[in-house]
Amino acid sequence: MQDIILLGAGGHALVVKDIIQSRNEYNIVGVVDKRFKKGEKVWDGIHCLGSDEELENLYKKGLKNIALCIGGLSNLTKRADIYISLKTIGYNLPILLHENTCVSKSATIGEGTCVMPFSVINANAHIGKINIINTLSVVEHDCNISDNVHISPRACVLGGVTVGKNTHIGAGAVVNQTLEVGENVVVGSGAVVTKNILANKKVMGVPAQ
């Protein structure tokens, strides 16, 4: 079993912790989060290793694996910047799959992506790096999901959809088949996307506009 660090200690991190512990592939050695003092208890058996300034030292000490546990940012590009910083240090960000996910053998998933309980990734879907495929969400066949995309709980991305980087698909939203959603897009909760969405747009409603 390899050691792993959690970067962040909020609600998303708590779910990631459960995913890691459900698989018994990694041992969580601690959390990096500036809101806690070094050595302070974060959860039972898990303590703070310090703030972001400790990341290089921790890597030099042999801790090579890290989970990016920062979710819910209003600007997802900040999360992408953190990923670049971690890769510059040299960290490995493993793919994290909850034991109760359904992932097709023909699907591909990029590093650092977290797939949460009861989500589905179907045949020939491509999932990029550091994505969040949240609880009960569905990514259907032949979808192409770029990097740093958050598919929120119960969202459904139908067959053949393309989603650009740094995009947020809100809880319960539906993106109809073969559509293209650009990068840096926010699709509101419960929206139904019935036409292509250009980059840098925020859409909501039924139909989404």
DSSP, total strands = 23
**Morphology:** globular
What count of domains describes the coordinates? 2
Our Rg estimate from Cα atoms comes to 17 Å
Q: Can you identify the CATH class of the largest domain? A: Mainly Beta
CATH-defined fold name of the largest domain: UDP N-Acetylglucosamine Acyltransferase, domain 1
How much helical structure, as a percent, in the residues?
10-25%
Specify the CATH homologous superfamily of the largest domain: Hexapeptide repeat proteins
What are the defining features of this structure?
23 strands, 209 residues, UDP N-Acetylglucosamine Acyltransferase, domain 1, alpha/beta, 3 helices, Rossmann fold
Can you give a write-up of this model?
This protein is of the alpha/beta class and 209 residues long. The protein starts with a strand and ends in a 6-residue tail after the last strand. It has a seven-stranded parallel sheet with strand order 6-9-12-15-18-21-23, with helices on one face. A six-stranded parallel sheet has the order 7-10-13-16-19-22, with no helix packed on it. Strand 3 (41-43) and strand 4 form a beta hairpin. It has helices at residues 11-23, 55-60, 76-89; strands at 2-7, 26-32, 41-43, 46-50, 66-68, 96-97, 102-103, 108-109, 114-115, 120-121, 126-127, 132-133, 138-139, 144-145, 150-151, 156-157, 162-163, 168-169, 174-175, 180-181, 186-187, 192-193, 202-203. The protein contains three helices and 23 strands. It has two domains: 2-89, Rossmann fold (3-Layer(aba) Sandwich), CATH 3.40.50.20; 95-203, UDP N-Acetylglucosamine Acyltransferase, domain 1 (3 Solenoid). It is globular and about 50 Å long.
